[in-house]
Amino acid sequence: MRTALVTAVAGAVVAFLLGLLTFGVQATVHPHDVPLAVVAPPPVADRVQAADSAEVDVRVVSADEARNLLRDKEVYGVLEIAPGQATIRLNPAVNPSGTQVAQQVLTGVAQGAGVPVRIETQAVSAAERTAPLAASALLWVGGMVAGLLFVVLKGRDLRWLSATTAAVLVTCSTAGLLAWWGVTLNVPTLAFLLAVATAFALLQAGLFKHLGVRAMGVLGLLYLMAPAVAGQVPELLNPVYRAVLWSWTPFRFSAEGLRSLLYDGSVSTEWWVFGGIALLGVVLLLAGKKAQTDSADGIVDVGVDQADGLPRAERQHTA
For residue 161, how many other CB atoms are within 10 A of its CB? Predict the structure, then answer.
């Protein structure tokens, strides 16, 4: 009776936590202070600013400043209003969720001004929209499976070699998939994929070393919750999810970095993030001893005393 009750409660708790950390992110999405830029003559600019709301943060700027903001991804879209014409400019390096909101809002602003709208952006295929988050998830899963199998097959040495080899092979398989889908990959993008895969694999190998199979409780949960968060822009997330999950999840940095490399060829912070993750993995691999329980069945090798052939634990008990 007690076992039945405990297992039932555990199932309910796990379901609640998964719903809270995964579907809850998407269920609570709502725009808040989405940054947009508008270039317009003074009368129109005044009307645009007067229509500002909590959902969007509209900045009335010059044309040059608007292009700089869009290039630096500080705004999700730019609306340029000229006599008889309005142009919406979008940056494909920005998360698609952000550009979608920007296009909808800016189209409404242009229609309110009574001018026809033209959208100017680089064409993005479905594969290119999917690639950043998909690649991040595949690189994580590949390293995780390699680390888990190393534990299950009772690997003893060269854990770091397993991790780095897995990183190279998973990078090749992921790049092959992306190329097959029609995504063009250059050398910096491939290097970034390899850096992400190596950082993930080293971190996972370090956790498996110290926790054994129990590391799956951490790594599996991260995999389930991170993509739901990384697929959104912060201005669409509930503030709690933004602070507690989005602010640190490595999936966000890998997806944003890959998206930037695909379209404007520049990343900076992301290299440091994954360098730090790789360093943490190396520290875990070098620190301390591995977990006693290093097999899927949880059996601990207690060892045999050479003096009398008895297991040490049994010898201490009989003494």
Answer: 11
